[in-house]
Amino acid sequence: MRLNPFNTDKIRVRSGGGGGGMRRAGGVGCGTLVIALIGAVVFGLDPMQTIGVVEGVQQSAPSQPRADVSEQELCTSGPYATEACNALTSLNETWAPEFQRAGIEFQDPLLTFYSGGVTTEGCGSASSAAGPFYCPADSGIYIDTNFYDVMARQLGASGDFARYYVMAHEYGHHIQNLTGLAAQVRSVQQQNPRQANQLQVRMELQADCYAGVWAGKNRNLIEPGDMQEGLRAASAIGDDTLQRNSTGRVNPESFTHGTSAQRVEALRLGLESADDTQCDRYFDFN
């Protein structure tokens, strides 16, 4: 995808630091795209213990944000970081006008690069096992860009558009936070715990749809093969596929992100329609 160069006047980026520094640095509760992937593939954890909400989690050796690194330095610290900043600029420029037309106050998210571990400003601390995630308490997208290498090696989900999909999905959670949907869903989940997983699946599928809408609205920048990269990544991180690959069993009742087929369908819906109202189909509280 031929995104325009990032504009530091239109994005907020910081370093989360980390024990090993930024390693080839180029994201309801804290909704994540692929927590299960890192836990199951890299650390051999039960994906159902690590997937989904990451709120108030405390893990060892968290890193502290560095205030002495400029956004320009961060965004040029590596190819993945540059990609992420390019994507964030495009996402802000695409979604801000949509919020203005809808009469909803818009705030751009804070993108944090980290390695090893990171401390958020409201969702506790997390290690790199968390992968990319979104924290609504500080409107933050947290990215350990080393995850992209794991995604390519372990799942065959490579390519720049696959990585843009990760960013755009976490941005989708930001949209849900700004519109108030995330808080509404959390309230319903608390009132009806048995529906919590089903509602979380809808959250993740809608975030996939929003990711597709962003790409669809920038269709002139899409290159041959991009859509296939994104759809392949969406398929690779479906609950059924992750469970089958990690445990050999599939337990639909524990799904929190949707099946491979559902995730592909949601991303495709956004890509082909380029209409965010199409993503409303995942929720109807009326």
Automatic annotation (TrEMBL):
Keywords: Membrane, Transmembrane, Transmembrane helix. Residues 236-259 are annotated as: Disordered. InterPro entries: Uncharacterised_pept_Zn_put. It is found in: Membrane. It is a single-pass membrane protein. The keyword Calcium does not apply. Coiled coil: none annotated. Residues 243-259 have a biased composition (Polar residues). The chain crosses the membrane at residues 21-45. GO terms for cellular component: membrane. Its main location: membrane. This is Zinc metalloprotease. The lineage of its organism: Bacteria, Pseudomonadati, Pseudomonadota, Alphaproteobacteria, Sphingomonadales.
